[in-house]
Target: Arginine--tRNA ligase
Amino acid sequence: MSDLVTQLSAACAAAFEAEGFEARWGAVRRSDRPELADFQCNGCMGAAKSQGLVPRDLAAKIAQRISGQGPIERVDVAGPGFLNIRVSSEALSEATEAIRSDAKAGGGTLDTTEKVVFDFGGPNVAKPMHVGHLRSAVIGDTLCRLFRFLGDDVTGDAHLGDWGLQMGHLITELFAEQPDLVYFDPDFKGPYPEVPPVTIEDLGRLYPQASAKAKADPARNEASQLAVAEMQAGHPGYRALLRHFINVSVDALKVDYAFLGVEFDLWKGESDVDGLIPDMVEMLKEKGLAKLDDGAWIIDVAREDDKKEMPPFMVINSRGGTGYHATDLATIVDRMDTLKPDRMLYVVDQRQALHFEQVFRAADMAGLIGEDRLEHIGFGTVNGTDGKPFKTREGGVLRLADLNAMALAEAEKKIGENGLSDEIGEDERARIAALVARAALRFADLQNVRTTNYVFDLERFTSFEGKTGPYLLYAAVRIKSLLRRAKEAGHEPGEVRIESDTERALVLAMDGFANALAQSHAKRQPHILCEHVYSLAQAFSALYAAHPIANESDAGLRGSRLALCEAVLKQLEAGLGILGIEAPERM
Ligand code: ARG
Model:
C-alpha cells in the first residue's frame, strides 16, 4: 500500500522525466496553504532554471501530464510555477479504507532492514537512577519499538553499570555493618547462601552512606577502590555479593521500568564481559594498538584532523583495573560474537559523547565493527524551572521511583478533576491513573528534539489540554467510547465518503503516517512521530467539533464517519503504541 504523497510524487517524477528532467524534481509534499490545495510540488522553478526555461511554462506542461492521473482531481499552476494539487474524494476514501484494513494502519515498512542492538537505560546497580536515566529509558524504548515496527530486527540491552566504584562502596559499607557475613570470611569454602544478605532498601542506604564517607575521607575511598580491584580480580565472596546486589537491584528496576512501559530483551551488564577482557587485551596488544604508558595500557585514538582534544582510550589503568572504556569495548566483542548486529545504537546522555567517540574509534581500529555502524544517540538534560539540571527540593537527584509516584499522584488528581465517574471501581481507577501518568511522562520527554534540554513541569505534563500525553489519550478514549455507543445502538461503519473540509483534512493527516515514521527512524528522532500523532488528534478534534458522528441522522454519512473514526483510532493507537503509550477504555 502506498500513501497519497508517494503516489503523487511518482506521478510528478514520471512527468518530469518525460519532459527530459531528473525525477527528483517531482517531489511532492503537503501544501503550506491547505485552503488552496492538498499537496504541492515546487520542482518547476529549479528544473526550469537548470535549462534556462520559463518556470511557468514548464509547470503548465507538467500539470497537463499529471492532470487526471491516479488520485489527482485538479492541478493549478500558481505564482512563479508552483503546482498546487487537489486529490479526489474517491482517492481519500480509498486511502481511508486502506488504513482501516492495514495491520500497520498505513505505517509502511523500510526497504532495507537491519539487525540492530540498542544499548539504553544504563541504570547503575545500587546508585539511584536520576531523570537522565528516565530519558535514556524512554527514548531508547521508543526507538526500539519504532525500529521493530518498521521491520528491523532489534535487541534492547539494559547494560547495567555494575563494575565501578559503587560496588566497592557497597562491599566496604556492608563489611562495616556486618563483618561476620560469610562473604568476608577468607576461609569460607562455599557455597554461598542463595538468599541475598541485603534488600533494595539496604542498598539504597548503604551506597549514599559510603559515598558520603568516601568524600570526607580519602582513606575510606581508597578502601572502596581496593575492594573493587579485588572483586574484579575474582575474590569469591565479593563476586557472590556482586551477584546478589545485581539481582536485588534488577528486581527493583523492573518495577520502575514497568511503570513507564519500558522493556528490555537483555539485562546484561558491565560485569558480564569481565571474562572477555583478558583475550581482548591480548588481541589489542598483538595488533600493536595497546601500548604501555606510565604503567597503564592505552590506545591512542587521536587523529590528525581532530578539532578537539582526544585523550587516549584506557584499556587497563595503572592499578591493573579495567573501567568504562574496557567494559564497553568488551561488550562490543561480546555482541559481535553472540548477536552479530549490523549496527549498535547507544542512547546515552550527550555529555558522554567523548567517551563514545573513543570507544567507537577503538572498536574500528581493532577491526570489530566499522565506526559508521556505531551511533551515539545523545540527549539533553532535564532541567528545573531555574534552568539548571533538575534536583529534588532537598537538592538531591530525583529517584525514578519517586518521580513515578509523583506523576501517579498528579494523574489521579487530574482524572478526578476531569470528572471520571465515581462508579468506576478502585482497581480500574488506579489502572487508568497509571496509564495517564505513563503517557504524561513519556510524551513530555519524547516530543522534544532529543538533543535539547527541557524543563520538568509535572503540572503541565499531566494536563488534559495542550500538547500532552493525556490529551492524546483523551482523543483515543473519545473515539473508543463513540464507537462503543454506536455499536450498542446497532450502527455499523459503512462506506467512506469524504465530503467536508474537516474530513478531508483528517484523511490528509492520516496520510502522513508512513512518512513521519520513516523520518523518525532516519533521524532517530521520536519527536517527529509525536508531531504526527498530535496533529492526528487535533484533526480528529476538529471533525468532532464540526460534525455529529454517532448522532448523525443520515445513515450513509454516519456509517462513513464511523469508518473514518475506526481508521483514525487504529492509526492513533499504532502511533501511541510506538511511543509506548496505551489508551484506556475510559478516563
Ligand atoms: N551506566 C551509565 C551511566 O549511568 C550509562 C551506560 C551507557 N551505556 C554504555 N554502553 N556505556 O552513566
Observations:
- Residues 274 and 327 are 7 Å apart (CA to CA).
